[in-house]
Amino acid sequence: MNRIAWILLVAVSARAETAPAVAGTGPVGQPLAFAKVPLSARMQGAAGLVPGGHDLFESFSNPALATRQSRTWEVGLADALMFGGDQNVWAVGAGWAGSQEGTVGWAAAAQVSGWNMSAFDEIDLYGNRTGTRVTPGGFHGGAAGAFRWKKWSVGLGVRFASAALDGLPDAVPSLAAIPLADFAFARTGEHWDFEMGWRGMGPQGSPEEFILTLLRHGEAPWRVTWGGGFSTPGDTASKTHGGGFIGWSFFDVVEPRLGLYGSGDTEARLTAGMTATWAGYALDYAIGLSIVGSNLGAMHHIVLRRSFGAFHTAPSPAGT
Q1: Number of structural domains found in the chain
Q2: Residue 157, domain extent
Q3: SS3 at position 192
Q4: Which of 2, 46, 224, 300 could form a disulfide with 259 if both were Cys (CB 3.0 to 4.6 A apart)?
């Protein structure tokens, strides 16, 4: 019976909105698939890719991007409703960045996040209800640091993730404080940005993936940004996902975006998002809808951010 409950947790977690990545197939990777969900609503609205500029939660998808933070401090709150509201993912974070003037720069960020689902009835091997209500959930937290030399940045992140089933009277295996590491590079150019990284590296079966992104951004006040990329899971059973997006920035205040990602003709998901900034505050929103393959329901992701402290660079794309 315990095995049935654990399999349910694996199946539920493997449905995480990974945009564009999917869960690993190993004994650790599936329950911890939620650790691959981008915490950045800007990324969620752009097919899981970084749409230029910077926001705090991007640093936990690519730690090298922490050096793009244009003010000394940034704090943020994030919440996402997935699968038509059946699953909730939340996050809080803070980031610090040193001066971006000169050849060398440093930055760091920290975050805590978690996920939970509505309670469901445990069933036995014959499909009968046992009278026990089960609540899947998990926590995820860590820190990232980045170093910049001229236009190149390198970042390292260390995270810990756990997953468990609450409510079962018998002992059920749980995953507690599984370490995950992220390592990434980024190059920020005048018009072209390049990003490459490895995420979720850890014990055998961890939800690891390789990500590569290239994007092109235009000039204010009518800035057009577009890009594409792909993610390859560390296990051979999962599929490589690719995607692309386009975004517009109007006077660096409002930035809508559209994205599309999938894996061949078996899965496709349409994303859309919007960022609005004013006086150091930023509000990000994203929605994702399945258009090919399994209908996982709509995803809604919202982030509120506050930046303060000295300006290290001139304010640039919406989302900084």
Answers
A1: 1
A2: 2-311
A3: strand
A4: 46
Whole-angstrom CA distances from 246 to 118, 121, 202, 212 are: 35, 43, 33, 17
3-state secondary structure of 276: strand
CATH number for 289: 2.40.160.60
Task: Find the range with the poorest average confidence among 2-6, 123-127, 131-135.
Answer: 2-6
Q: What average pLDDT does this structure show over 137-164?
A: 91
Residues 6 or more apart in contact with residue 7 via CB below 8 angstroms:
none
Give a yes or no: residue 258 inside a domain. Answer: yes
pLDDT band (50, 70, 90) for residue 276: very high
- Residue 320 domain flag: no
Query: CA-to-CA distance for 201 and 206, rounded, in angstroms?
Result: 6
Question: What distance in Å separates the CA atoms of residue 31 and residue 34, rounded to the nearest whole number?
Answer: 8
Task: Report whether 20 contacts 46 (CB < 8 A).
Answer: no
pTM here? Answer: 0.83
Question: CA 185: distance to chain centroid?
Answer: 17
For residue 16, pLDDT beyond 60: no
Comparing C-alpha atoms, which of 195, 211, 100 is closest to residue 147? 100
